[in-house]
Inverse folding.
Protein backbone atom coordinates (compact mmCIF):
# COMPACT_ATOMS: atom_id res chain seq x y z
CA UNK A 1 0.00 0.00 0.00
CA UNK A 2 1.28 3.46 -0.87
CA UNK A 3 1.56 5.77 2.12
CA UNK A 4 0.65 9.45 2.21
CA UNK A 5 -0.15 10.83 5.64
CA UNK A 6 -1.60 14.31 5.87
CA UNK A 7 -2.58 16.84 8.50
CA UNK A 8 -4.65 19.98 8.41
CA UNK A 9 -1.69 22.04 7.20
CA UNK A 10 -0.57 19.56 4.56
CA UNK A 11 -2.00 19.08 1.06
CA UNK A 12 -5.50 17.62 1.27
CA UNK A 13 -6.75 14.36 -0.22
CA UNK A 14 -7.80 16.01 -3.46
CA UNK A 15 -4.16 16.88 -4.22
CA UNK A 16 -3.05 13.24 -4.02
CA UNK A 17 -3.56 10.79 -6.90
CA UNK A 18 -7.21 9.73 -6.68
CA UNK A 19 -8.25 6.39 -5.25
CA UNK A 20 -10.92 4.19 -6.81
CA UNK A 21 -13.62 5.78 -4.61
CA UNK A 22 -12.26 9.33 -4.80
CA UNK A 23 -15.13 11.81 -4.58
CA UNK A 24 -17.35 9.42 -2.63
CA UNK A 25 -18.52 10.69 0.77
CA UNK A 26 -19.27 8.33 3.65
CA UNK A 27 -21.04 9.19 6.91
CA UNK A 28 -19.89 6.69 9.53
CA UNK A 29 -21.90 6.33 12.73
CA UNK A 30 -20.50 2.88 13.55
CA UNK A 31 -18.43 1.94 16.58
CA UNK A 32 -15.86 -0.60 17.84
CA UNK A 33 -14.68 -3.02 15.10
CA UNK A 34 -16.89 -4.32 12.25
CA UNK A 35 -18.31 -0.99 11.06
CA UNK A 36 -15.12 1.08 11.51
CA UNK A 37 -13.02 -1.63 9.81
CA UNK A 38 -15.42 -1.50 6.84
CA UNK A 39 -15.38 2.28 6.53
CA UNK A 40 -11.59 2.27 6.85
CA UNK A 41 -11.44 0.06 3.74
CA UNK A 42 -13.65 2.58 1.93
CA UNK A 43 -11.30 5.34 3.09
CA UNK A 44 -8.26 3.38 1.92
CA UNK A 45 -9.97 3.19 -1.48
CA UNK A 46 -10.19 6.99 -1.60
CA UNK A 47 -13.57 7.80 -0.05
CA UNK A 48 -13.92 10.80 2.28
CA UNK A 49 -15.13 9.31 5.58
CA UNK A 50 -16.82 11.45 8.25
CA UNK A 51 -16.73 9.62 11.57
CA UNK A 52 -19.42 10.57 14.08
CA UNK A 53 -18.52 9.86 17.72
CA UNK A 54 -20.43 10.44 20.93
CA UNK A 55 -18.93 12.78 23.54
CA UNK A 56 -16.89 9.97 25.14
CA UNK A 57 -15.63 8.78 21.77
CA UNK A 58 -15.81 5.45 19.96
CA UNK A 59 -15.65 2.72 22.60
CA UNK A 60 -12.59 1.23 20.91
CA UNK A 61 -10.59 4.31 21.96
CA UNK A 62 -10.39 2.72 25.42
CA UNK A 63 -10.39 -1.02 24.64
CA UNK A 64 -7.58 -3.07 26.16
CA UNK A 65 -5.61 -0.05 27.30
CA UNK A 66 -4.45 0.75 30.82
CA UNK A 67 -4.09 4.37 31.89
CA UNK A 68 -0.33 4.12 31.44
CA UNK A 69 -0.72 2.63 27.95
CA UNK A 70 -3.26 5.29 27.03
CA UNK A 71 -0.75 7.97 28.02
CA UNK A 72 1.92 6.38 25.85
CA UNK A 73 -0.50 6.15 22.92
CA UNK A 74 -1.58 9.79 23.05
CA UNK A 75 -4.85 9.21 24.90
CA UNK A 76 -6.25 6.38 22.79
CA UNK A 77 -5.76 2.65 22.29
CA UNK A 78 -4.14 0.55 19.55
CA UNK A 79 -7.57 -1.01 18.95
CA UNK A 80 -8.96 2.37 17.82
CA UNK A 81 -5.88 3.30 15.83
CA UNK A 82 -6.01 -0.01 13.94
CA UNK A 83 -9.35 0.73 12.23
CA UNK A 84 -9.81 4.48 11.91
CA UNK A 85 -7.28 5.92 9.47
CA UNK A 86 -8.46 7.95 6.48
CA UNK A 87 -11.32 9.49 8.47
CA UNK A 88 -12.28 12.83 9.97
CA UNK A 89 -13.97 12.98 13.38
CA UNK A 90 -16.89 15.03 14.65
CA UNK A 91 -18.54 14.66 18.06
CA UNK A 92 -22.35 14.60 18.06
CA UNK A 93 -24.48 13.69 21.06
CA UNK A 94 -27.36 11.93 19.32
CA UNK A 95 -29.50 12.16 22.44
CA UNK A 96 -29.81 15.87 21.57
CA UNK A 97 -32.38 16.67 18.86
CA UNK A 98 -30.22 19.27 17.12
CA UNK A 99 -27.36 16.75 16.85
CA UNK A 100 -29.69 14.31 15.08
CA UNK A 101 -30.67 17.16 12.77
CA UNK A 102 -26.98 17.60 11.92
CA UNK A 103 -26.75 13.92 10.99
CA UNK A 104 -29.77 14.24 8.67
CA UNK A 105 -28.32 17.37 7.09
CA UNK A 106 -24.97 15.67 6.42
CA UNK A 107 -26.71 12.49 5.26
CA UNK A 108 -28.42 14.51 2.53
CA UNK A 109 -24.98 15.30 1.07
CA UNK A 110 -23.20 11.93 1.22
CA UNK A 111 -23.21 8.77 -0.87
CA UNK A 112 -23.04 6.18 1.91
CA UNK A 113 -24.24 6.12 5.51
CA UNK A 114 -23.13 3.36 7.89
CA UNK A 115 -24.30 2.53 11.41
CA UNK A 116 -24.32 -0.43 13.80
CA UNK A 117 -26.93 0.64 16.35
CA UNK A 118 -29.36 -2.01 17.54
CA UNK A 119 -32.53 -2.32 15.42
CA UNK A 120 -35.08 0.16 16.74
CA UNK A 121 -32.63 2.85 17.84
CA UNK A 122 -32.33 4.71 14.53
CA UNK A 123 -36.10 4.48 14.02
CA UNK A 124 -36.64 6.13 17.41
CA UNK A 125 -34.17 8.87 16.45
CA UNK A 126 -35.66 9.43 12.99
CA UNK A 127 -32.42 8.30 11.31
CA UNK A 128 -33.69 5.09 9.73
CA UNK A 129 -33.37 4.41 6.01
CA UNK A 130 -36.85 5.63 5.10
CA UNK A 131 -36.34 8.90 6.98
CA UNK A 132 -32.94 9.86 5.57
CA UNK A 133 -33.56 8.56 2.03
CA UNK A 134 -36.41 11.04 1.61
CA UNK A 135 -33.85 13.81 1.21
CA UNK A 136 -31.28 11.63 -0.57
CA UNK A 137 -32.79 8.84 -2.72
CA UNK A 138 -29.32 7.99 -4.08
CA UNK A 139 -28.06 7.17 -0.59
CA UNK A 140 -26.59 3.73 0.08
CA UNK A 141 -27.67 3.13 3.68
CA UNK A 142 -25.69 0.34 5.34
CA UNK A 143 -26.54 -1.13 8.71
CA UNK A 144 -24.79 -3.81 10.72
CA UNK A 145 -26.43 -5.60 13.64
CA UNK A 146 -25.73 -8.54 15.93
CA UNK A 147 -28.45 -11.03 15.00
CA UNK A 148 -30.05 -9.41 11.95
CA UNK A 149 -33.08 -7.13 11.64
CA UNK A 150 -35.83 -9.78 11.84
CA UNK A 151 -36.77 -12.52 14.27
CA UNK A 152 -37.09 -12.74 18.04
CA UNK A 153 -33.42 -11.76 18.66
CA UNK A 154 -33.31 -8.79 16.30
CA UNK A 155 -33.02 -6.25 19.13
CA UNK A 156 -30.57 -8.26 21.21
CA UNK A 157 -27.09 -6.79 21.37
CA UNK A 158 -23.97 -8.95 21.14
CA UNK A 159 -20.27 -8.78 20.49
CA UNK A 160 -17.95 -10.99 18.48
CA UNK A 161 -17.42 -13.73 21.07
CA UNK A 162 -21.15 -13.97 21.85
CA UNK A 163 -21.91 -14.66 18.20
CA UNK A 164 -18.96 -17.05 17.96
CA UNK A 165 -20.82 -18.94 20.68
CA UNK A 166 -24.33 -18.61 19.23
CA UNK A 167 -23.24 -19.66 15.74
CA UNK A 168 -21.55 -22.86 16.97
CA UNK A 169 -18.10 -21.61 15.98
CA UNK A 170 -16.78 -21.94 19.53
CA UNK A 171 -18.21 -25.46 19.85
CA UNK A 172 -16.00 -26.55 16.94
CA UNK A 173 -12.89 -24.72 18.19
CA UNK A 174 -10.31 -25.94 20.69
CA UNK A 175 -9.47 -29.45 21.87
CA UNK A 176 -11.96 -32.27 22.39
CA UNK A 177 -13.07 -32.67 25.98
CA UNK A 178 -11.73 -29.30 27.07
CA UNK A 179 -13.59 -26.02 27.81
CA UNK A 180 -14.76 -23.88 24.85
CA UNK A 181 -12.15 -21.68 23.15
CA UNK A 182 -12.80 -18.50 21.17
CA UNK A 183 -10.85 -17.77 18.02
CA UNK A 184 -7.78 -15.72 18.90
CA UNK A 185 -9.06 -12.56 17.22
CA UNK A 186 -12.43 -10.92 16.54
CA UNK A 187 -12.83 -13.09 13.47
CA UNK A 188 -16.59 -12.54 13.09
CA UNK A 189 -16.18 -8.75 13.28
CA UNK A 190 -13.46 -8.88 10.62
CA UNK A 191 -15.51 -11.13 8.34
CA UNK A 192 -18.46 -8.82 8.92
CA UNK A 193 -16.47 -5.75 7.93
CA UNK A 194 -15.64 -7.25 4.53
CA UNK A 195 -19.23 -8.43 4.07
CA UNK A 196 -20.39 -4.87 4.68
CA UNK A 197 -17.84 -3.49 2.19
CA UNK A 198 -18.98 -6.01 -0.41
CA UNK A 199 -22.63 -5.06 0.06
CA UNK A 200 -21.86 -1.33 -0.12
CA UNK A 201 -19.79 -1.66 -3.30
CA UNK A 202 -22.52 -3.79 -4.88
CA UNK A 203 -25.14 -1.18 -4.00
CA UNK A 204 -22.95 1.59 -5.43
CA UNK A 205 -22.63 -0.34 -8.68
CA UNK A 206 -26.41 -0.80 -8.75
CA UNK A 207 -26.76 2.97 -8.24
CA UNK A 208 -24.48 3.63 -11.20
CA UNK A 209 -26.81 1.55 -13.36
CA UNK A 210 -30.17 2.74 -11.98
CA UNK A 211 -29.54 6.05 -10.20
CA UNK A 212 -31.16 4.67 -7.03
CA UNK A 213 -29.67 3.99 -3.64
CA UNK A 214 -30.78 1.20 -1.35
CA UNK A 215 -30.52 -0.30 2.12
CA UNK A 216 -27.70 -2.76 2.81
CA UNK A 217 -27.98 -4.99 5.87
CA UNK A 218 -25.48 -7.41 7.37
CA UNK A 219 -24.88 -8.87 10.81
CA UNK A 220 -22.48 -10.72 13.03
CA UNK A 221 -24.70 -13.81 12.77
CA UNK A 222 -24.71 -13.76 8.96
CA UNK A 223 -20.94 -13.34 8.96
CA UNK A 224 -20.42 -16.20 11.42
CA UNK A 225 -22.72 -18.43 9.36
CA UNK A 226 -20.66 -17.63 6.27
CA UNK A 227 -17.53 -18.71 8.15
CA UNK A 228 -19.30 -21.93 9.15
CA UNK A 229 -20.60 -22.65 5.64
CA UNK A 230 -19.16 -26.12 5.01
CA UNK A 231 -19.58 -27.09 8.69
CA UNK A 232 -23.32 -26.35 8.49
CA UNK A 233 -23.45 -28.15 5.13
CA UNK A 234 -22.05 -31.31 6.74
CA UNK A 235 -24.82 -31.14 9.32
CA UNK A 236 -27.59 -30.40 6.82
CA UNK A 237 -26.36 -33.25 4.59
CA UNK A 238 -26.57 -36.12 7.10
CA UNK A 239 -26.59 -34.78 10.64
CA UNK A 240 -22.78 -34.71 11.08
CA UNK A 241 -21.93 -32.32 13.92
CA UNK A 242 -18.41 -30.90 13.97
CA UNK A 243 -16.44 -31.39 17.19
CA UNK A 244 -13.33 -29.54 18.31
CA UNK A 245 -10.18 -31.16 16.93
CA UNK A 246 -7.53 -28.65 17.96
CA UNK A 247 -5.71 -27.64 14.79
CA UNK A 248 -7.00 -30.69 12.86
CA UNK A 249 -10.16 -30.96 10.80
CA UNK A 250 -12.45 -33.61 9.36
CA UNK A 251 -11.34 -33.27 5.73
CA UNK A 252 -8.07 -35.20 5.65
CA UNK A 253 -5.09 -36.46 7.66
CA UNK A 254 -2.51 -35.02 8.17
CA UNK A 255 -3.93 -31.53 8.37
CA UNK A 256 -2.89 -30.04 11.71
CA UNK A 257 -0.03 -28.91 13.95
CA UNK A 258 2.79 -31.31 14.78
CA UNK A 259 5.52 -30.88 17.40
CA UNK A 260 9.06 -29.99 16.36
CA UNK A 261 12.23 -29.86 18.42
CA UNK A 262 11.81 -26.10 18.84
CA UNK A 263 8.12 -25.38 18.29
CA UNK A 264 5.33 -26.59 16.04
CA UNK A 265 4.55 -26.76 12.33
CA UNK A 266 1.33 -27.24 10.39
CA UNK A 267 1.55 -30.11 7.89
CA UNK A 268 -1.15 -30.62 5.27
CA UNK A 269 -0.93 -33.57 2.87
CA UNK A 270 -4.26 -33.22 1.13
CA UNK A 271 -4.03 -36.02 -1.45
CA UNK A 272 -2.55 -39.48 -1.71
CA UNK A 273 0.34 -38.37 -3.91
CA UNK A 274 1.21 -35.52 -1.55
CA UNK A 275 1.02 -37.90 1.42
CA UNK A 276 3.47 -40.27 -0.28
CA UNK A 277 5.91 -37.39 -0.80
CA UNK A 278 5.41 -36.27 2.80
CA UNK A 279 6.06 -39.75 4.20
CA UNK A 280 9.18 -40.21 2.05
CA UNK A 281 10.56 -36.82 3.14
CA UNK A 282 10.03 -37.52 6.85
CA UNK A 283 10.56 -41.26 7.44
CA UNK A 284 9.52 -43.64 4.62
CA UNK A 285 10.11 -46.80 6.64
CA UNK A 286 7.76 -45.65 9.38
CA UNK A 287 5.15 -43.69 7.46
CA UNK A 288 4.96 -44.89 3.85
CA UNK A 289 2.99 -48.04 4.68
CA UNK A 290 0.09 -49.71 2.83
CA UNK A 291 -2.45 -49.00 5.58
CA UNK A 292 -1.85 -45.24 5.21
CA UNK A 293 -1.83 -44.96 1.42
CA UNK A 294 -5.47 -43.98 0.84
CA UNK A 295 -7.04 -40.78 2.13
CA UNK A 296 -10.07 -42.52 3.62
CA UNK A 297 -7.85 -45.02 5.44
CA UNK A 298 -5.81 -42.18 6.93
CA UNK A 299 -9.00 -40.57 8.24
CA UNK A 300 -10.04 -43.84 9.89
CA UNK A 301 -6.57 -44.35 11.38
CA UNK A 302 -6.17 -40.76 12.64
CA UNK A 303 -5.60 -41.95 16.24
CA UNK A 304 -2.59 -44.07 15.25
CA UNK A 305 -1.19 -42.06 12.33
CA UNK A 306 -0.99 -38.70 14.11
CA UNK A 307 1.19 -40.07 16.96
CA UNK A 308 3.39 -41.79 14.35
CA UNK A 309 3.95 -38.52 12.49
CA UNK A 310 4.51 -36.64 15.76
CA UNK A 311 7.22 -39.10 16.82
CA UNK A 312 9.04 -38.32 13.57
CA UNK A 313 8.58 -34.54 13.54
CA UNK A 314 9.98 -34.19 17.07
CA UNK A 315 13.38 -35.17 15.69
CA UNK A 316 13.57 -32.04 13.51
CA UNK A 317 13.53 -28.30 14.08
CA UNK A 318 10.78 -26.18 12.54
CA UNK A 319 13.20 -24.86 9.91
CA UNK A 320 14.30 -28.39 8.97
CA UNK A 321 10.70 -29.59 8.61
CA UNK A 322 9.76 -26.60 6.48
CA UNK A 323 12.81 -27.10 4.26
CA UNK A 324 12.23 -30.85 3.81
CA UNK A 325 8.54 -30.61 3.04
CA UNK A 326 8.63 -27.51 0.86
CA UNK A 327 11.31 -29.27 -1.24
CA UNK A 328 8.80 -32.01 -2.14
CA UNK A 329 5.81 -29.64 -2.53
CA UNK A 330 4.00 -30.54 0.68
CA UNK A 331 2.02 -27.75 2.39
CA UNK A 332 3.83 -26.76 5.58
CA UNK A 333 4.06 -23.67 7.81
CA UNK A 334 5.79 -22.89 11.06
CA UNK A 335 3.42 -21.86 13.87
CA UNK A 336 4.65 -18.31 14.38
CA UNK A 337 4.21 -16.11 17.41
CA UNK A 338 2.33 -12.84 16.89
CA UNK A 339 5.68 -11.02 16.98
CA UNK A 340 7.20 -13.31 14.33
CA UNK A 341 4.14 -12.99 12.09
CA UNK A 342 3.75 -9.21 12.43
CA UNK A 343 7.43 -8.60 11.65
CA UNK A 344 7.78 -11.27 8.96
CA UNK A 345 9.58 -10.41 5.74
CA UNK A 346 6.76 -12.00 3.73
CA UNK A 347 4.09 -9.74 5.21
CA UNK A 348 6.26 -6.70 4.54
CA UNK A 349 7.12 -7.80 1.00
CA UNK A 350 3.42 -7.96 0.11
CA UNK A 351 2.41 -4.63 1.61
CA UNK A 352 0.73 -6.20 4.62
CA UNK A 353 1.16 -3.12 6.79
CA UNK A 354 1.06 0.62 6.31
CA UNK A 355 2.86 3.49 8.00
CA UNK A 356 0.63 5.92 9.86
CA UNK A 357 3.50 8.40 10.19
CA UNK A 358 6.57 8.70 12.39
CA UNK A 359 4.82 11.31 14.53
CA UNK A 360 1.85 9.03 15.31
CA UNK A 361 1.41 7.05 18.56
CA UNK A 362 0.89 3.90 16.49
CA UNK A 363 3.31 4.09 13.59
CA UNK A 364 2.09 1.11 11.58
CA UNK A 365 -1.17 -0.78 11.09
CA UNK A 366 -2.43 -3.69 8.99
CA UNK A 367 -3.32 -2.69 5.43
CA UNK A 368 -6.55 -3.43 3.58
CA UNK A 369 -6.38 -7.05 2.37
CA UNK A 370 -6.05 -6.41 -1.36
CA UNK A 371 -4.00 -4.49 -3.91
CA UNK A 372 -5.22 -2.59 -6.97
CA UNK A 373 -2.83 -2.08 -9.86
CA UNK A 374 -4.49 0.99 -11.39
CA UNK A 375 -5.87 2.76 -8.30
CA UNK A 376 -3.66 1.89 -5.34
CA UNK A 377 -5.03 2.25 -1.84
CA UNK A 378 -3.41 4.95 0.28
CA UNK A 379 -3.16 6.29 3.81
CA UNK A 380 -4.21 9.90 3.41
CA UNK A 381 -5.02 10.66 7.03
CA UNK A 382 -3.87 9.18 10.34
CA UNK A 383 -6.62 8.16 12.80
CA UNK A 384 -8.31 11.37 14.00
CA UNK A 385 -8.35 12.86 17.46
CA UNK A 386 -11.82 12.95 19.01
CA UNK A 387 -13.86 15.69 17.35
CA UNK A 388 -10.80 16.99 15.51
CA UNK A 389 -12.61 18.03 12.32
CA UNK A 390 -15.96 19.27 13.66
CA UNK A 391 -15.67 22.84 12.41
CA UNK A 392 -14.67 21.82 8.88
CA UNK A 393 -17.36 19.12 8.60
CA UNK A 394 -20.12 21.42 9.79
CA UNK A 395 -18.92 24.18 7.49
CA UNK A 396 -19.10 21.81 4.52
CA UNK A 397 -22.69 20.99 5.52
CA UNK A 398 -23.53 24.68 5.30
CA UNK A 399 -23.48 25.65 8.97
CA UNK A 400 -22.50 29.25 9.70
CA UNK A 401 -20.25 30.13 12.63
CA UNK A 402 -23.16 31.33 14.76
CA UNK A 403 -25.06 28.08 14.09
CA UNK A 404 -22.05 26.04 15.18
CA UNK A 405 -21.81 28.12 18.35
CA UNK A 406 -25.48 27.46 19.03
CA UNK A 407 -24.96 23.71 18.59
CA UNK A 408 -22.13 23.85 21.12
CA UNK A 409 -24.31 25.77 23.56
CA UNK A 410 -27.05 23.13 23.24
CA UNK A 411 -24.62 20.32 23.96
CA UNK A 412 -25.10 18.79 20.51
CA UNK A 413 -21.34 18.70 19.93
CA UNK A 414 -20.54 17.23 23.34
Amino acid sequence: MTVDTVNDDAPGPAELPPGMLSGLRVLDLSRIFAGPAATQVLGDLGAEVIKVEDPTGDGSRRLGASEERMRRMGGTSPAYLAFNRNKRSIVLDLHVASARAVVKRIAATVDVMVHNFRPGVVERWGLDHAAVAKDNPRLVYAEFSAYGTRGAMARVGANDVAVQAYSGLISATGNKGEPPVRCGTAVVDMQGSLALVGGILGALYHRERTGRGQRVSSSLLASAAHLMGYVYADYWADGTVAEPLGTANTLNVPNQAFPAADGSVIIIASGDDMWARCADALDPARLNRPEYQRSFDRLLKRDTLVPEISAVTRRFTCAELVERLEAVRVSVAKVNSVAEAADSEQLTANGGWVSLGDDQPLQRAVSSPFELSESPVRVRRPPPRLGEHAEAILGEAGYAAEEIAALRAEGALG
User: Anything to note?
Assistant: The domain at 255-336 is CATH 3.30.1540.10 (formyl-coa transferase, domain 3). The longest strand covers residues 48-53.
